[in-house]
Design brief:
alpha/beta; Rossmann fold; two-stranded antiparallel sheet
């Protein structure tokens, strides 16, 4: 476990909680946000993709926005977030459905055709990776845009998948 992973683990123990699959981090990551910690997490995750060509970071509204911005800032690229409601100003768009187990609801994610161009290389970012519903929706949107998803960078990976770059995994949190 590297330094930032240890710091995050200690912060979860101090200011959050772990109850099975539920990791409560709303006092510093996804409700009230510690910007210094978020920047450190973004620096770590961006470093893992520094040698790859990444044109944009992509995430879903709303909890992924902070880590997407931190990673994008480190890589010097824009970030895009898929919206949960399509505004009247959004003309042509890409869309895909996503189910949130935390909120127990299905939602459609929308991205304007103006913000993802064919051939672009996008990196998915989010606070958590659980069952992959949001990731699958983003994959569909990126495919509709004829762009490429180059990877996934998340703060905590709760799944069994090992192709997701994460600061911590559920396994590390529950050992």
């Amino acid at each position: 476990m590297n330094t930032i992973a240890k710091e995050l683990f200690e912060r979860i123990k101090r200011d959050g909680s772990i109850k099975g699959q539920i990791i409560k981090v709303d006092r510093f990551l996804n409700h009230m946000v510690d910007p210094l910690l978020m920047n450190q997490l973004g620096t770590e995750l961006a470093g893992r993709f520094a040698t790859q060509k990444v044109d944009k970071i992509i995430t879903a509204e709303s909890s992924g926005i902070m880590i997407a911005q931190a990673i994008a800032g480190q890589l010097g690229v824009p970030f895009v977030y898929a919206k949960k409601k399509r505004p009247l100003t959004m003309g042509e768009f890409f869309a895909a459905s996503s189910y949130s187990f935390t909120k127990e609801e299905s939602t459609t994610l929308y991205v304007s055709r103006e913000v993802i161009l064919p051939g672009e290389r996008l990196l998915f970012a989010d606070d958590f990776f659980a069952v992959g519903s949001t990731y699958k929706a983003i994959e569909q949107i990126v495919e509709q845009a004829e762009a490429t998803l180059v990877g996934a960078a998340v703060i905590i990976n709760k799944s069994e998948r090992r192709d997701i770059d994460a600061i911590l995994t559920l396994e590390e949190l529950t050992d």
